[in-house]
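Q: I'm writing up a methods section and want to include an example of the input and output format. Could you take the sequence below and give the corresponding predicted structure tokens, formatted cleanly so I can copy it straight into the document?
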Amino acid sequence: MADQVFAGAMWINSHLFNYGITANYSTNTLVINGSDYITVNEGCSGFKQDYQLLFLFLLYPGIWKHKLWYIPFSFIIMHLTNIFRIVVLTAVLNMQPQYWDFWHEWIMRPFYYVVIFFLWVLWNEKFRAKVRRLRGPALIAER
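A: Here is the clean output for your methods example:
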């Protein structure tokens, strides 16, 4: 997964931005202006967040036919979020490298969990809530 995140971030950075980036594909490293670099390793792959997301939606109530498409949809959203995260960190490293640690630890890492939270809110409001509304009147009508 780290290879895919690296490739996506490299493509966006090289096609949309002109940062003077070179890539070391053997180590998944983006080298910016010959000195600063970002290495996309296993910890940056998003695997842990996908695992958390999978179990959140498997254990949370809802209709299984919706879970069968919503879980893979959520994986795609998380993968795109991770690519966005690396692209933003590349921009930070290019423009203000002194803020790298702050952005990496306090902005972009929690951003993952903000996206997971919004995916859960969407699930809860649009799909799980629909189940409650359908069951509610049916139960009242049976009494």
